[in-house]
Specification:
The complex is a heterodimer of chains A (161) and B (763). Chain A has five helices and five strands. Chain A has helices at 25-32, 88-95, 105-118, 124-130, 142-158; strands at residues 3-10, 13-20, 51-54, 57-60, 73-75. Chain A has a five-stranded mixed beta sheet with strand order 2-1-5-3-4, with helices on one face. In chain A, a hairpin with a 2-residue loop joins strand 3 (51-54) and strand 4. In chain A, helix 2 crosses helix 5. Chain B has a domain at 17-24 and 463-606: Aldehyde oxidase/xanthine dehydrogenase, molybdopterin binding domain (Aldehyde Oxidoreductase, domain 4), CATH 3.30.365.10. Classes of the chains: A alpha+beta (161), B alpha+beta (763). The interface between A and B is large, with 54 and 54 residues. Bound molecules: FE2/S2 (inorganic) cluster (FES) (2 copies). One FE2/S2 (inorganic) cluster sits between chains A (99-105, 136-139) and B (200, 251, 486).
């Protein structure tokens, strides 16, 4: 298998990694870097659980070759909480009981971040459409939608983050 | 009780929510060990075949391959992967009919061989190099056809592919007499579907033998203790040589009531002499693992002129697939639920468990009750129509009263069916909305279904144990053998412990997931966690509080019975200035330099003395497009008597989640088997469509609280409740809208259009 050295910025840190040409971004994150917060429920682009942000855009890491995103800025769930505390989206998910088994949660939260970065004040319908590609088998989505709307509100008050 | 509760009944954060929100929570798929190998499965591409030869030599020679196993490397012992035979007394039992790896393929997806290699890529390459010579046999996929004479035989012992014929344990009275008394009789066949659990975490197991030969297994079993015993028996090991650990689990709903990856993973680790992680792809998960129990029920109901039910009959064919797994228990539960929802003196049910060459059915959320209600609650509406009675009235005429028996055969302490029915009917606007409002090509309708489930099951090993100990800062370690798959049992028992001890929720440090360090727990099934482990926790915490008070009484020079504890502070009744903190007492016990040492610790054990069922009703409002056949659920109202909600947010989310699975079951989750090849066509999230956010209707969840004396703080189990009545409520609403009844799940647009067509032709 062809291998190349490639540079990435992952969660604001610079990385220089030896990457096999057929390795997906999800594999790179989970196996090479042990960033297992990113989950893979299907591995084939159907469920959204592996969503990360690449240059701010939501991307399915299971269906993206690592080498194809060299030099890019990659954000995973591990980047959201800081020393100061949780990201408002994370806090809202906890407060609203939007997490049951938690397996869809990282992808759902990253998708929410992309959604709110783009549209800070979404309607309920826009939220439902925005997370339309992120499957959750536990919650029935009610509390996730509540959490996202509450996060939008608290981020609006804080002036965004 | 009677006192004001400060933690129970409150919305406190769920267990592990912080770890899950930050990505820090480690699930089994995330777990790694040094030197760990990747395991992969080889499954049968054909539905029915003898295996003439398996040549693994080329695979073994591939560099990086550490072990290849076939039927020759696994115990030569038939077993049943389901744990129910160890925890339930059941006269018909669950048949052992499966090997860890088979020398005969009985469905597309049957496990044939497995590989462990230095990484997944090498393991997958090795699978391709295994040469299997299949001698294909004729196959049968339809459970009704399979028992006809002359069909291919799937297991040698099962004549006409009937594994077992068994009557319902709740049969009573004389149905023939009952039907004679009836003013109307309705008979109809209903088919329920093999819903897939679709838990989001792919099935995974890690197994590791240490130098002494002791096995540690990390897996998502819902029953670590029972499965440890089962595994020990299967591999001829002493139970003590197995340690079973559980990490975070991404959903289960009964899938892990059976072994899934464990036996193959253990066999691989044994042969390789290194730790192995066996992970299923999503496609394999669909193809090879157990689905919901599925039945074909020919139900018959007799109703007297006054609306009371005179007889119920149900002839059941179990669509069990290629192996037996849960057929007996899940079907007994199905028949039991059919027999016990309403007051009825005459009941006769009987089931045939039939083998076919399709993937295996197991037991999923509701465990028999959803298929039973799919039949019974539609029969009720059909009978109401024939009788000319309102379906709500018909139900109200037949609801069970206090003292009558629930499905687990305990007398009901409360009866809230009528309240739940009336409340829900009012919330959805049943009267106003009934009768098919029209708008363009759309027709609208409303429907309802009632339910009663259980708070745990009954039987010999249904016991639960927890232990609690005080740390010197007043925090408490609560160790429990239960498993949290996302239902928040760890959070709710922590609330119960904190409430009982008079400390704070955050003072409880829960420890679970390790058979070495927790006491026996029979596992997560039958909505029994909260009712049973909650009771064990009340007992243990009450005992610990007694020890705390005894010690505090000495320090305060008071009588233990005069003490009170609230928010970490112990006070003496009537002497407001006398008191001591819980932490100081706990510390004194450990660090008393005067030699009076002790460690305040207690155990709580509970064996079911009672079983008060969650009951309620659901109501659906639907729109049906008469041109496309599309059904759109506009609103769902679910009223559930939960006894007491320990954490109302958790209870609500259980009911919402159950409802969403019910919607998928009703409308879109279509487990299609190719009728020629037996190949599962819906093996991914595109063809097998579970609800997404945009598919969810407006939902109104009403937690009706009427505490029961035998539940912890009055609570009942609600994990499965909402799943049970959704599909029949939607079917009844569809009938109200367009006058056709789809009797086999799911209710797809094609089936609706076909039924409408057939109806038009009749007219
Ligand atoms: S794992 Fe990437 S979309 Fe499902
Ligand atoms: S919380 Fe379990 S899949 Fe979403």
């Amino acid at each position: 298998m062809k291998k190349e050295i490639a540079k990435f910025t992952i969660n604001d840190r610079p990385y220089e990694l030896l990457v096999e040409s057929n390795v997906t971004l999800a594999e790179l994150l989970r196996e090479q870097l042990d960033l297992t917060g990113t989950k893979c429920a299907c591995g084939v682009g159907e469920c959204g659980s592996c969503t990360v942000l690449i240059d701010g855009k939501p991307t399915l890491s299971c269906s993206t070759l690592a080498i194809a995103v060299r030099e890019k800025d990659i954000l995973t769930i591990e980047s959201l909480a800081t020393r100061e505390g949780l990201h408002p989206i994370q806090q809202a998910f906890i407060d609203h009981g939007a997490i049951q088994c938690g397996f869809c949660t990282p992808g759902m939260i990253m998708m929410t971040k992309a959604l709110l970065d783009e549209n800070p004040d979404p309607t309920e319908q826009e939220v439902k459409e925005g997370i339309g590609g992120n499957l959750c088998r536990c919650t029935g989505y009610v509390k996730i939608v509540d959490g996202i709307l509450a996060a939008a509100e608290s981020m609006g008050k804080e002036g965004g983050r | 009780m009677g006192e004001e509760l400060t933690i129970v009944g409150k919305k406190v954060p769920r267990w592990a929510a912080f770890e899950k929100a930050t990505g820090a929570a480690r699930f089994t798929v995330d777990f790694k060990l040094p030197e760990m190998l990747a395991g992969r499965l080889l499954t049968s591409p054909v539905a029915h075949a003898n295996i003439l030869k398996i040549d693994t030599s080329r695979a073994e020679k591939l560099p990086g391959v550490e072990a290849v196993i076939t039927f020759e490397d696994v115990p030569n012992k038939l077993f049943n992967p389901n744990k129910m035979d160890m925890c339930l007394f059941d006269p018909s039992g669950e048949l052992p009919d499966m090997y860890v790896l088979s020398d005969k393929a009985r469905f597309v997806g049957d496990k044939i061989a497995a590989v462990a290699a230095i990484n997944a890529g090498v393991a997958e390459e090795a699978l391709v190099l295994i040469e299997v010579e299949y001698e294909e046999l004729p196959a049968v996929f339809d459970s009704l056809e399979a028992s006809n004479p002359g069909q291919p035989r799937i297991h040698d012992f099962a004549k006409n592919n009937i594994a077992l014929t068994f009557p319902c344990l709740a049969n009573r009275g004389d149905v023939e007499e009952g039907f004679k008394e009836a003013h109307v009789v309705v008979e109809q066949t209903f088919k329920s579907s093999k819903q897939h659990m679709c838990q989001m975490e792919p099935t995974t197991c890690v197994a590791d033998f240490d130098a002494s030969g002791r096995l540690t297994i990390w897996s998502m079993s819902q029953h670590p203790f029972l499965h440890r015993r089962k595994l020990a028996e299967l591999f001829d090991m002493p139970v003590g040589m197995i340690r079973w650990k559980t990490l975070h689990i991404g959903g289960g709903w009964g899938k892990y009531g059976s072994f899934v990856a464990e036996p193959v993973c253990v066999a691989l680790a044994k042969k390789a002499g290194r730790p192995v992680k066996l992970e299923y792809s999503r496609e394999e998960d669909f193809r090879t693992t157990e689905t919901r129990e599925a039945h074909i029920m020919t139900g018959k109901i007799g109703v007297r002129k006054d609306g009371t039910i005179s007889a119920l009959q149900n002839k059941v064919v179990v669509q069990g697939g290629a192996y037996f797994t849960h057929n007996s228990n899940a079907t007994n539960v199905a028949m039991g639920c059919f027999a016990s929802l309403y007051t009825c003196p005459n009941v006769y049910e009987i089931a045939d468990a039939v083998y076919t060459n399709i993937p295996v059915s197991g037991g999923c959320r509701g465990y028999g009750n959803p298929p039973a209600m799919w039949a019974l609650e539609q029969l009720m509406d059909m009978a109401a129509e024939k009788l000319g009675m309102d379906p709500l009235e018909l139900r109200l005429k037949n609801t069970k009263k206090v003292g009558e028996f629930g499905p687990a055969n305990y007398a009901l302490e409360t009866s809230t069916f009528d309240d739940c029915l009336r409340l829900g009917a009012e919330k959805i606007g049943l009267k106003e909305k009934r009768g098919g409002r029209r708008e363009g090509t759309k027709r609208y309708g409303v429907g309802m279904a009632m339910f009663m489930h259980v708070s745990g099951s009954i039987g010999a090993t249904q016991h639960r144990n927890v232990h609690l100990k005080f740390n010197e800062d007043g925090t408490v370690n609560l160790a429990a053998g239960c498993v949290d798959l996302g239902q928040n049992i760890h959070g709710t028992i922590s609330q119960i412990a904190a409430e009982t001890l008079g400390i704070r929720y955050e003072d409880i440090i829960i420890h679970t997931g390790d058979t070495d360090t927790t006491f026996f727990d029979q596992g997560m099934h039958a909505s029994g966690g909260l009712f049973q482990i909650g009771n064990a926790t009340v007992k243990g915490a009450t005992e610990l509080k007694k020890l705390l008070f005894e010690r505090a009484a000495k320090m305060l020079e008071a009588h233990p019975e005069d003490l009170d504890v609230k928010d970490r502070w112990i006070s003496v009744k009537g002497s407001p200035d006398k008191g001591v903190s819980v932490a100081d007492v706990a510390k004194d016990a450990i660090y008393n330099y005067e030699d009076d040492h002790n460690h305040l610790a207690a155990k709580g054990s509970y064996s079911p003395e009672d079983n008060q069922p969650p009951v309620g009703a659901s109501f659906a409002e639907v729109g049906v497009d008469t041109e496309s056949g599309e059904v759109n659920v506009i609103k769902l109202v679910i009223v559930c008597d939960v006894g007491r909600a320990i954490n109302p947010q958790t209870v609500e989310s259980q009911l919402e989640g159950g409802a969403s699975q019910g919607i998928g079951y009703a409308l879109t989750e279509d487990y299609t088997i190719n009728p020629e090849t037996g190949y599962l066509e819906a093996d991914n999230y595109i063809t097998y469509k579970i609800p997404g956010a945009a598919d969810m209707p407006d939902m109104e969840i009403i937690q009706y609280e009427k505490p029961v004396s035998t539940g912890p703080f009055g609570a009942k189990g609600v994990g499965e409740a909402a799943m049970v009545p959704i599909a029949p409520a939607i079917a009844n609403a569809v009938y109200d809208a367009v006058g056709v009844r789809v009797t086999d799940l799911p209710i797809t647009p094609e089936k609706i259009l076909k039924s409408m067509e057939a109806k038009r032709e009749k007219i």
